[in-house]
Amino acid sequence: MKITSVKFMKGLVGDDEILADGTPQIAFIGRSNVGKSSLINALTNSKISRTSSFAGRTQEINIFLVNDSFYLVDLPGYGFARHSGLGREKIGELIDSYLFNSIHNQKKVVMIIDANIGMTNKDLLMFNELQNHEKDFIIIANKVDRMTQSEYHKKMIEIKKITNTHTLVPFSTKNRKGLEALSDIIFG
Fold this sequence. Notes:
The chain is of the alpha/beta class. The chain has helices spanning 36-44, 88-100, 121-132, 149-163, 179-187; strands at residues 6-12, 25-30, 61-66, 70-74, 108-114, 137-142, 168-170. A seven-stranded mixed beta sheet has the order 1-3-4-2-5-6-7, with helices on both faces. Strand 6, helix 4 and strand 7 (168-170) form a beta-alpha-beta unit. The protein starts with 5 loop residues before the first strand and ends with a helix.
């Protein structure tokens, strides 16, 4: 699918009527500083989502309207919160409310992990919750450009053992590895 328009709609810190307007939603979730915003920017070929070198920058649910037909939903990162703004507990409640409240129905959830680190305990908790709630989700192993070939193969095998039958896409925003595969999966 060719992206012809991307527009920031709003940032949410709770339920909002926009989430119930019938527009299909594709949610992006991952630990803080895993590259969610950079991935969204690469996917939309834009700089619509603010990136930062500081973990915990996104503290609200950011909604982007793509091609006037679906929303990309950038969720705050789990596992870290700066001292100012929303606290870790509030961010956790915000994520849980959006992802696991039965009134919100995501077309797809894109769970992003750091390929260099693999699945952390927090990633495993999110992975299990997504499975328990029968979400349609894929796993993106981001930042693969930062690995040697042997590290890459070893980590992909480790991650695949955990993710089992779930789709795993190795990804790099730097060299755009996996971009076409991800586009086909979520927009196809």
